[in-house]
Every structure is written in C-alpha cells, then in structure tokens.
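Hi there, hope your week has been kind to you so far. Please have a think about how the structure follows from the sequence. I've dropped the whole record in just underneath, so have a look:

_____
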Amino acid sequence: MPIISKVAQGECIKQKGSGYRSPSDIRWIIPHHMVAHWTAMFAAKYFLNNGLDNSVNYCIGYDGSCVCGLWEDYGAWTSSNALVDHYSVTIECSDTSATNYTIPEMTKETLIELMVDLIQRYPSLGGKAVFDPSDASEVMLAKKEGRLPNTKGNILLHKWTSGGTTSCPGQDMIDNLPAICAEVNRRLEARKTKIDKYMDALAELGDGRYHYYDGKAMGIGCSEYTRLALVKAGIIKEGETFHAASGNVGVLADTTRFKKIPWSSNNLERGDIMWSNGHHVAPHDVTSLKVIG
C-alpha cells in the first residue's frame, strides 16, 4: 500500500523517479523552493503535466496546504542527484511571491509538521532534525564522485546535492532551517509517549540481546536493567518500586503498579509497556510493538 503522510490533504502522483525503496532507505529530508506562489495541488499538477523527467514527494503551498506528489516508498527526482534522492524525502515549498525565495509562515508551519511526522515514522532519520552546514563540502564531493555522502545531519540542500549548480532552496529557507529544526525537535520531544521515552532510555543504556551493568551480562528480562530504563525515562523515580502483575501479561498503568490484561485484549494503548511473566516484551518484540503501537 502506498505510503503517504497524514499531513497531506491529497495526492497527485507522477510516477517518475528511482523506483521502490524500503523504509530503512530513507536517510535525509530535502526542502526545496518553487520560485512560485502556488497552492500544493497546483504545484503537484505542474509536476504531473510539465513533461519533464522530474517529480517530488510532497508539495506545500503558500496557504499551508500539502499534497503528495510521489509516495514515500518511491524515490523522486527533485534534487539533481538521483542517488541521494532515492534515500530522501523531497519537499517543494511555495514562496511568498513568484519573484523571491521567501517562505511564507503557513508554508513553514506545514513543513515543520511534515518533518515531525516523517521523523516519527522513520527510525532511519535518527529521531531528530539535524541541519549541519558543514555537510555542504561532503555532499558536493560525493556528487562529483558518484557516491552517497557521509553526513552529520539529515537535512540536505538542493544547492549541495546538485554540486552547486542552483541556489535552491534560497537564503531565506537556509536562514530559517536552524529554527525550523529546533521547533521540529521541540514538538518531537513534547509528543513522545511512555514507550518512546522507554525506548530512548534502552538505546542510551545499550540495546541488544544482552545488556551489561556493573560488568555483568543481563538478559532482556532483567528487572534491574528494566528499573534503570524506567528511571532514565522518567516513568518511575529513583527509589520507587514496580511490581509485575500476576498472570501472563501486565501493562504499565502508573509509576508503581501494573494492571492485568488478557493476551488477546484490544485495550492496549500506545505508550503502554507490555509485560509477560514479569518481563518486558514490547520494547524488544516487533510483533508486540505492532500490537500496542
């Protein structure tokens, strides 16, 4: 099934690009400017009917509208670099007029929401928005050498991916990207659920089949390792205790107790932490994560 962001209000698909890609392929977000004062649908129809070998994943209009121009699971041809585009979500943003590169406030607001949604859904983007101007030389060198760049950030510019043949996305977008990324990251943090925070804590403590604490290998179900992660995530406080429910499965109800639910229950909510015989299941089990997430 084609993948489209919930931020988009519609689609106008032009199937020109690098073809199908898996979710784990997506490494970068590339914002562009249209040099046009268009709605998202008008821009998407322009791409559809211009007769050129180009496409874009999303268009954002001056009014904040958003339309999908090519599904996320397909690489677009937008950034004068088919290789990088295959690993990127590309976004065309309207200008305040057809004669400058200034990005309207409503366009920026939708761009922020789209970036938040993309980063939430693609772990390969690293969990936050990072714009690093020092990536410019590496991206342009990689273009010249015909390889993928090794970047510090996950936000790239068309002027880099093209090898310097364009000024896109314009100085206004470039000047605003640090603030845009800061707001994206603020919203990402504010919208984290308990399971998100718990997963972050596990990642910081070290993930894998076994975890090490005080030089000792601990299995996935180790209660002390779980306690450390819960404290680190702010779900319980240092010194507080937690107790697994009797029976097969419990789910975190508050900072100190678990409530019992049957395995087949549909009452699990996103953010709950599932347990089986006192051991946490969801953070390490993809099937369980799908059930609760």
DSSP finds nine helices and 13 strands in the chain. Residues 222 and 244 are 13 Å apart (CA to CA). The longest strand covers residues 28-33.
